[in-house]
Structure formats: structure tokens, C-alpha cells
Amino acid sequence: MPLFGKLPVIGESAPNFSLEDQDGNLRSLVDYKEKRLVVYFFPKAFTPGWTKQACGFRDESEKYNELDIEVVGISFDSKKALIGFKEKFRIPFNFLSDKNRVVGKKYGVNNFLFASRKTFLIDEKGILIHIIENVNLNSHPMDILELFEKVKTGD
């Protein structure tokens, strides 16, 4: 069985997920219906890259709220690791624990030890509209806002 599952296809329904967040609440794709959604996979809690990425989203959270865009981070970490990070850095969005790597496989991000760093943009109807495979940690949140704006205007 390959480590990477088949990547989802842009223009088709995003793969469904049901995972527990850092607080033990079950979160599913349907919970974000009628909203634009950023689903980003990251390798490991408390690493420098993840900290920069998550805090970048935190710092732009007001813009995301204004545009009705939700953010969800997913890793193979435990809920305990995720809640510790969320509390330490005051992250305003949820992290989901995919310890069994089921959702990672659906999104094609499974690697030997960690999830690959990839981001998936999903529209209000649950359709995958963009995949970011090469994440620039310095500009990632702003890059996503620009991509959503391009989709909205049809550019």
C-alpha cells in the first residue's frame, strides 16, 4: 500500500473527515458547510515551521473572520500536544488529531513519520478549489487570502 493516497481532485468534492479536535469534540467537513475552509496538514506540533505557520494564521485571523473563512490544522499528533500548542500560542482555530492517519490518506499527505505540509482550499459547497503543495511559511496566510479572492473574482 502506498504511503501517499490519491490526491483529491480540484473541482470535485473535498474528502470528508471526522476527527476529534484538541478538546475532544468531533469535527467533520459538514460542520463548515456554507463557509470557505482552509484545511492544512502539518508535520509535527511545536516544531519551528509549524509554530510560524499557525501563528501566521493567528495573526491574520481578523481578516479570515471578516471574509468568513475557517481554518483547520490537522496532524498525526495527540490531542494533548495540540491543546498545549493552542493554549501556549493563543491560536483561535481548531487543530484536529489524525493519529490513525485515515484523513491524511484521503488527502494524500501520509509520509513515513509525519504528514506532509500541504494546504487544501474548499469553497462553501465543499468543493476543493486549490491545493498548495509548496507552502511558503513567511506568506502562507496572505497567499491563501489572495487565492480565495482570485476564485471569487474569477481571475
Structural category is alpha/beta
**Could you tell me the radius of gyration in angstroms?**
14 Å
N→C terminal distance: 39 Å
Kindly state the number of beta strands.
7
- Number of H/I helices: 5
Largest sheet: 7 strands, mixed
Describe the global form: globular
| Annotated CATH architecture | 3-Layer(aba) Sandwich
CATH class: Alpha Beta
- What's the pLDDT, averaged over the residues? 89
Order of helices and strands: EEEHHEHEHEEH
Unreliable segments (pLDDT under 50, ≥5 consecutive)?
Answer: 1-5
- Write out the strand line-up for the largest beta sheet, numbering strands in chain order: 2-1-5-4-3-6-7
Beta-sheet strand percentage? Answer: 15-25%
Number of domains: 1
Percent helix range:
25-40%
Q: What's the CATH H-level superfamily name? A: Glutaredoxin
CATH overall fold name: Glutaredoxin
Description:
This protein has 155 residues and is α/β, with parallel strands linked by helices. The protein has a single domain (34-153), classed as Glutaredoxin, CATH 3.40.30.10. The chain has five helices and seven strands; from the N terminus they run E-E-E-H-H-E-H-E-H-E-E-H. It has helices spanning 48-59, 61-66, 79-89, 102-107, 140-153; strands spanning 18-21, 26-28, 36-41, 69-75, 94-97, 118-122, 128-132. The chain has a seven-stranded mixed beta sheet. The longest helix is centred in the last third of the chain and has 14 residues, at 140-153. The model is unreliable at 1-5 (pLDDT under 50).
